[in-house]
Amino acid sequence: MSTTTTPAQSAPGSTKESPPTMGPKTVFLIRHAESVENQRISSMFSCLGDLRSFSLPKRSDVGASLELLNFAHDVPLSEVGLQQCQTMKEKLTDCNFVASQKIELVVHSPLARAKQTCAELIGCSSDDADGEDQSQSGKVEEEEVKFEPATPNASATKADATGTTSTTTTTTTSTTTPSYPEPIQRVVNLDLLSEKTHIEWVPGNSGGFERRVASFEEWLGNQPESIVAVVGHSQFFKLMLKMPFKFNNVDVYQVKFDKDKTKLNEPVIMEHDGTADEVVLKPQWYDLKLLHSCKETPAVPNTAATTPTQEGADGANNGDNGENLL
Asked: What GO cellular-component annotations does this UniProt entry give (predicted)?
C-alpha cells in the first residue's frame, strides 16, 4: 500500500493546493532492545571505571571496547537485547497491546536493532509480506538534509552546482496485504528514523540530524492513521521530544501528537532511574506517559509544583553510564 495521501481540495480561486489536514494522533514510542553497540559502550565505561579505581579491567570488557573502533552503525541485538524483547513481549501479550490500543500504523527505523525489536514486540516488520520481499519505494524529497543512510541504496543523494545536497528518503511499504496483527493496516520502514550517525555527533554537524527529526514530524503529521507505533532510537526520541533523559531499552511510552498545536506545555516532573527530572515537551507533543518497562519503577508524571516521591530504581540496566548512547 502506498504511503501517499490525497491532498485536500484547494479553496475557490486558489492556485495552490493546501496540504491535507490531519487531527491529533496517539503515538506509542518504543526504543529498541539492547544492541551489540550498546553492549560495547557499556564495556568501555566499565573499563574506564576500573581504571579510575586503579583496578585492571576485565579482558572481556577490553575486547568489547576495542570493537567500537569498527565504527559500525547498523548492528543487531545482543543476547541481553533478545532477552529484553522476550520479557517485554510477554508484557505486551498479556495486555493484548496491539489490539487493545487499536494500532493502525507501525513505523520503524531501517537499522537492524529497531527492525528486530519491532518484529519481536509488535509481531511484524517491513520485511513481512506473506514471507516474500514484495516492497516498493515511496519517495519523499527532503531538501538539504545531509544524511548518509545506514544501508546502501536506501536513499539517493545528489548535489547541484552550488554544492547543496538533497536526499531522497525512501520508505518501504507492502504492495499486498500481509497478515499483520489486527488492526494494523500498514508497516513502514522509514530512513528518517535512523539513529544519530557518527558524523552527526561531530560538534557543529548536528544540523542534518535536527532537520531529519523535523522531517519525520512533518511526515507523521501527514499520515491518515490516528494511532501509530514507532520503534526507534534513544537519541532520536530525546531530541524529538526535548527530553532531559533517554528512554531505556524496550520502554513503551504513549504520547499525543498534534502538528498544528502551538500552545506551550506546562512542565511536569517525571521520575527516571531514581531521579526526578523536569520535562517540558515541545508544543506539538503532549501527555507523555510510560506504559511498560522492564524496570521495576515506572516513570510517573507529576506537576512541577508537586514534590515527587523518589522511589528506588535499579540503575544497572540501561542507565546513563553510556549504554543509552544509541
From this structure: cytoplasm
Q: Which three cell numbers stand for residue 294?
A: 522492564
- What kind and span of H or E run contains 25? strand 25-31
**How many helices (DSSP H) and strands (DSSP E) are in the chain?**
7, 12
- Dihedral of the alpha carbons of 119, 120, 123, 129, in degrees to the nearest 10: 30
Q: Please write the tens of the pLDDT for every residue from 23-59.
A: 899 999 999 999 866 555 554 545 555 556 666 666 6
Whether the link from the prior residue into 152 is cis, omega within 30° of 0, is no
Alpha helices by DSSP H, listed for the chain, are 36-52, 59-66, 79-94, 97-100, 112-121, 207-221, 234-241
Find where cell 508524571 sits: 301
112-121 vs 79-94: helix crossing angle, rounded to 10 = 30
Closest CA to 140 of 104, 193, 180: 193
| Cα distances (angstroms) measured from residue 114 to each of 91, 117, 232, 250, 322 | 18, 5, 6, 10, 19
The grid coordinates of residue 319 equal: 542507565
**323 CB neighbour count, 10 Å cutoff:** 25
- Which residues of the chain fall below pLDDT 70? 1-21, 36-73, 129-178, 296-326
CA-wise closest residue to 133 among 168, 170, 178: 178
Cα gap 137→132, rounded to integer Å: 16
Could you give phi then psi for residue 170, rounded to 5 degrees? -105, 130
Contacts (Cβ under 8 Å, ≥6 apart) of 219: 140, 190, 192
CA atoms within 13 A on the CB side of 274: 9
Residue 144, phi-psi category: left (phi > 0), alpha (psi -120 to 50), beta (remainder): left
Going by the DSSP 8-state scheme, the letter that residue 223 receives in this structure is -
Q: How far apart are CA 301 and CA 150, in angstroms?
A: 35
DSSP letter for 70, please: G
CA torsion, ordered 224, 97, 86, 189, to nearest 10 deg: 0
